[in-house]
């Protein structure tokens, strides 16, 4: 376990990058380098990070990075892992870093294959709940009721539960995180680095541009997502489910804030009716009943 003061001073997300003001994914990317250091090879498909890194021949990323096709993050990462093994190069962490569109939709087939092969790498989905790089179209991770350019009156389907989909592959480590809780994320990265096999971390990454909120509220919104129970922080390590702080205190419904507090701060939910909000609250309460059971020493 590390503290804020123990994080290294070195920065590998360099000045002058092209992220939007208040960008949640850029905060998460900076924390990733704080946790894993410079001996990282990053594999990035088409996504917001393709822009954040800067146009060729310039870059704002201080580690080796391979840009790859939208659907091929896990396949390319698998090839890099195999090459490192062939060359007997140790101490390098291969990280697939992809958005929700490139993970839960376009990239799920390559990721599933890598997990089935037990490829030794970390795959991270930074989830801003839409195709952010191409104008905020609906993805499989877009939540119910959210405005996107392709769901102008609000999406009518629920969000895919990608962490549980990955847990069904029986990989050794699955976790959720949010950059609003930086030490939780850093500790999960450090743990994943020491585990052999496929590791999957799913980050909720608030996006002011697509979620329609003012840029200074990124950290506040991430915390509200957790405090309302809409986003639970947990780990599934070798099939064992564990809630992490502060989510471990939220099994008690009385300690969770109403979801309306989170939804009301975002313009993307402007079309929600009171009935919609009540439906979302009901789903959250049902999810937490499931978490309560899983946390009682239940193996997935």
3D architecture notes:
- By secondary structure, the chain is an alpha/beta fold.
- The protein has a single domain (4-295), classed as Rossmann fold (3-Layer(aba) Sandwich), CATH 3.40.50.
- 35% of the residues lie in helices and 14% in strands.
- The protein contains eleven helices and eight strands.
- It has helices at residues 24-36, 48-52, 73-86, 101-105, 108-116, 162-167, 182-194, 208-211, 218-227, 259-263, 274-295; strands spanning 40-44, 65-67, 93-99, 121-127, 173-177, 198-204, 234-237, 240-243.
- The protein has an eight-stranded mixed sheet with strand order 2-1-3-4-6-5-7-8, sandwiched between helices.
- Helix 1 packs across helix 7 and helix 3 runs parallel beside helix 5 (108-116).
- The radius of gyration is 18 Å and the shape is globular.
- The protein starts with 23 loop residues before the first helix and ends in a 5-residue tail after the last helix.
- The mean pLDDT is 96.
Under CATH, the homologous superfamily reads: Thiamin diphosphate (ThDP)-binding fold, Pyr/PP domains
* Overall average pLDDT: 96
* Run of helices and strands: HEHEHEHHEHEHEHHEEHH
- Shape annotation: globular
- Mind telling me the C-alpha Rg? 18 Å
Query: Which percent band covers the strand fraction?
Result: 5-15%
Count of DSSP E strands?
Answer: 8
- What would CATH call the class? Alpha Beta
